[in-house]
Design goal:
alpha+beta; eight-stranded mixed beta sheet; 12 helices; about 25% strand; globular; binds flavin-adenine dinucleotide
Length: about 400
């Protein structure tokens, strides 16, 4: 890792996922001197459904990565089909969110393209470098301490952005919350020989959770599922047993995964809850992506929120470049709430059905009977309350 001569930057971005990389690209384009610190060496696999919802394509255009994403030959996913345990189903066409299709694209590829674009744009990028703690001057965050294989270094900036995903490395160090025992565990692996419908992202509900199966580049399938921690414990924390004994209790999953063979390692992660955190956790520190709020994966919109909040924070920082931090923080928090509060509230309500097979069965029956209701609900998980009468965006695939 090449160290810069000067350890001072305009903005430090912690984490190089879609939120951090996109914020860094927007900021660098606006003339800011940006340092991005990522603990992994890219490309790296990432636990995710790898359903890149259609609205993300407008972000790829703005970030200057649209052609690189197309060149990676993503699968085109024209609909998401939700299957109840008994096999009843209801479909949500991708075109309801604008354009024609969502992308099925591995996070290894997508995140790598974004990080390299940030470098091209002039962002200083450290990989294989872990942020261990914020540096503070009184209450104000003035930088970060970074651990690499050669030791520890300090980097300073008047603004630091926590984009470390659900880990919320910086925010967590500053706002002490009681560590609850994780109630949910997620697993993900790539598979060959599944029978998933081409062009569909299939979502399966089962007791204690749900999972998604869809095609990504090169015809491989990605399977990612969430299960209540107690079921995982009963299955000796073995993903193959969880798959057979819990996920495949869904009739459709039993069909599509009957002949499937894994072609990657299993990844797993656990956490205690969904929902929002603080967009401005401390003076000098702002949060984006999953560090600010973790939206339920059944919406397939976590990456969209990462891009949206990355853009929002960059716009706020560039708008307030000479102002005191509190004005920037107030402005960003207000725009964040306007953009995301409504969808986070609606997802909170839908979550109950997602984790109860009985309620999921009823929900699928009701949504199946009314296309209008289905459309409104689907769009309400993406947009703010005022834009539920969605106007399709222009995207790459139109
Ligand atoms: C089971 C599951 C399925 C999902 N499926 C989908 C889906 O199909 N579609 C969708 O749109 N969304 C999905 N999501 C949500 C999506 O994965 C997230 O919303 C998205 O990754 C958030 O991006 P981010 O940049 O905020 O965080 P992340 O993508 O988590 O990126 C954070 C980065 O920070 C780095 N980091 C962490 N700690 C440190 C540290 N100490 N120092 C330096 N770097 C650090 C990490 O290595 C990582 O690269 C899913 C989530 C889960 C849990």
């Amino acid at each position: 890792m090449l160290k810069p001569h000067n350890n001072k930057f305009d903005v430090i971005v912690a984490g190089g996922g879609p939120a951090g990389a996109s914020a860094a690209i927007h900021l660098a384009r606006g003339g800011a001197n940006v340092l991005l610190i990522e603990q992994k060496k890219f490309p790296r696999a990432k636990l995710c459904g790898e359903f890149v919802s259609p609205e993300c394509q407008a972000h790829f255009e703005k970030l200057g990565v649209a052609n690189a994403m197309i060149a990676a030959a993503p699968a085109l996913l024209e609909e998401t089909v939700f299957y109840s345990t008994k096999g009843h189903h209801v479909a949500v066409p991708s075109k309801w969110f604008g354009g024609r299709a969502a992308f099925g694209l591995s996070r290894a590829v997508m995140d790598e393209v974004l990080l390299r674009r940030a470098q091209e744009r002039g962002v200083t990028v450290f990989e294989d470098a872990s942020i261990t703690e914020p540096i503070r001057d009184g209450e104000t965050v003035t930088g970060v301490r970074v651990k690499t294989d050669t030791g520890h270094d300090d980097y300073r900036a008047p603004i630091t952005i926590d984009a470390t995903g659900r880990a919320r490395i910086l925010s967590r160090k500053l706002i002490k919350t009681r560590n609850k025992r994780p109630s949910l565990v997620a697993f993900k692996a790539h598979f060959r020989k599944t029978k998933v419908a081409p062009g569909a992202c299939e979502i399966y509900f089962y007791p204690g959770g749900y999972g998604g199966l869809s095609t990504i580049e090169a015809g491989t399938s990605n399977l990612c599922f969430i299960v209540a921690a107690e079921h995982v414990k009963r299955c000796h924390s073995d993903p193959n047993i969880v798959l057979r004994e819990v996920v495949m209790r869904n009739r459709r999953a039993a069909e599509t995964l009957e002949t499937a063979e894994t072609c990657s390692e299993w990844l797993s992660a656990s956490w205690e809850r969904f929902g929002r955190q603080r967009p401005s956790p401390a003076p000098g520190l702002l949060a984006i992506g999953d560090s600010a709020a973790f939206i339920d994966p059944f919406t397939g919109s976590g990456m969209l929120m990462a891009f949206e909040s990355g853009e929002l924070v960059a716009q706020a920082i560039l708008r307030h470049n000479r102002d005191v931090f509190s004005d920037l923080a107030d402005d960003y928090t207000a725009s964040y709430r306007r953009m995301f509060d409504s969808r986070l509230r609606i997802c909170g309500l839908l979550r109950r059905a997602a984790f109860s097979p009985h309620l999921a069965e009823i929900g699928i029956a009701i949504c199946g009977a009314s296309e209008r209701l289905r459309g409104r609900l689907a769009r309400a998980t993406r947009s703010n309350a005022k834009s539920h009468n969605f106007l399709p965006q222009k995207t790459l695939l139109e």
